[in-house]
Design a protein that fits this description.
Structural class: mainly beta
Number of strands: 11
Oligomer: single chain
Helix content: under 10%
Radius of gyration: 13 Å
Shape: globular
Order of helices and strands: EEEEEEEEEEE
Strand content: over 45%
Largest sheet: 7 strands, mixed
């Protein structure tokens, strides 16, 4: 199971760090993705970290978001900097066909 946390309300230009903690699976053996879904929009892939820790990002978040993992804590993070109103969405992590419950990120002044 995947437990997502860290969402909230932040002003434009602010930062948040999302966490995705795994139980029952060992994260370091799998690629982990962060997705988001804004109201009325399709779910989109935001960032991916591979088993070998290579990373990929959606063009809309490159240079602002960073995905990383802490194998000792069996947790993957999404550091989000310079947040914009268009980053407002529910964020999910997924690995091995498991999905976290989602956390709402709202960027608004």
């Amino acid at each position: 199971q995947l437990q997502v946390s860290g969402g909230g309300l932040v002003q434009p230009g602010g930062s948040l760090r999302l966490s995705c903690a795994a139980s029952g699976i060992i994260f370091r053996y799998y690629a982990v993705d962060w997705y988001r879904q804004a109201p009325g929009q399709q779910r989109e892939l935001v960032a991916r970290i591979s088993r070998t820790d290579s990373t990929n990002y959606a063009d809309s978040v490159k240079g602002r978001f960073t995905i990383s993992r802490d194998n000792a804590k069996n947790t993957v993070y999404l550091q989000m900097n310079n947040l914009k109103p268009e980053d407002t969405a529910v964020y999910y992590c997924t690995a091995v066909n498991y999905w976290g419950q989602g956390t709402l990120v709202t960027v608004s002044s």
